[in-house]
Amino acid sequence: MASRALGWVLRMSYAPHSDDWEAQEEEAEDPPLLAFLKAALLVEVVVVMLMGALAVVVVLEMELVALLSVMVVNLVVETVVVVVVVVVVVTPPPAPLPSASDMGMAGKHSLSSTSREKKVRKRMLEMDPINR
Prior knowledge:
This protein is an all-alpha fold and 132 residues long. The chain has helices at 2-14, 21-27, 32-61, 64-90, 108-127.
């Protein structure tokens, strides 16, 4: 339910407003960022539930040192999840590699590099003792 709420909030911020959100939600596929955020939220909820259950068991046993260690582990896990989510959200997608025409290497220059590569391959084959 929490992931559906997060998805709804993110869609409200990115999509134009419409009255028929339920129909659009069933038809639309999640973008990769939204899917990642949903997975991170699910991991967060599971970790909090497990740590809470462990804390209850520790309190029932009245071991305060163990309770402090559970709280520290919980804090570390929460921090790691938040940092990973922030890094994924803030990091821009990688730029596509430029093609040869974008770099100004069209025509004669690209052909000469190809012939140069052929010459190097030919010399390497000539120097190879197996091919002699």
